[in-house]
């Protein structure tokens, strides 16, 4: 006969033996999060100056998270510059470009919609021709979005 009685032995072999007793208070699943989730929590973490920039943008229908991320990328600036950036991104997205590419192009060209649009258009054209996207990006930046010069460079790289 073993050291444990048969009832103690069955408890220790139970698959539920490691769980806390049912009387322990249940903790909500999200209670361990250290980052705020709700829009009000996100806004309360901002300075008054940042809230003054973001609140009108949110009132126009932009999601709080997108507005905050845009503020982080572009830095504190005037409301008109902030809205101009968001509008430019929206227009480029409506042309069918991916959000990540739009944001990257806007950053590469210091938020110039015209230059970002040229870059994205040429990037798509050269990708359609079969060139690798990373090479195309590099060449377009080196060539200042000059199509003919970039094409020559890309062709030379493949030879």
TrEMBL record:
GO terms for biological process: ubiquitin-dependent protein catabolic process via the multivesicular body sorting pathway. One of its GO terms (cellular component) is ESCRT I complex. Gene3D superfamilies: UBAP1 SOUBA domain. It holds the Pfam family UBAP-1_UBA2. Residues 110-157 form the UBA domain. GO terms for molecular function: ubiquitin binding. This is Ubiquitin-associated protein 1-like isoform A. It comes from Patagioenas fasciata monilis. The lineage of its organism: Eukaryota, Metazoa, Chordata, Craniata, Vertebrata.
């Amino acid at each position: 006969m073993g050291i444990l009685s048969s009832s103690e032995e069955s408890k220790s072999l139970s698959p539920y033996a490691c769980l806390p007793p049912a009387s322990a208070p249940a903790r909500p699943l999200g209670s361990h999060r250290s980052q705020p989730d709700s829009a009000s929590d996100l806004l309360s973490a901002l300075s008054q100056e940042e809230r003054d920039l973001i609140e009108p943008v949110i009132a126009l229908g932009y999601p709080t998270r997108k507005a905050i991320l845009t503020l982080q990328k572009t830095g504190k600036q005037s409301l008109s510059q902030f809205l101009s950036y968001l509008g430019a991104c929206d227009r480029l997205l409506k042309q069918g470009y991916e959000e990540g590419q739009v944001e990257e192009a806007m950053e590469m060209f210091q938020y110039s919609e015209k230059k970002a649009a040229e870059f994205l258009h040429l990037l798509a054209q050269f990708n359609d021709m079969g060139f690798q996207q990373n090479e195309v990006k590099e060449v377009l930046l080196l060539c200042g979005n000059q199509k003919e010069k970039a094409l020559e460079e890309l062709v030379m790289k493949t030879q």
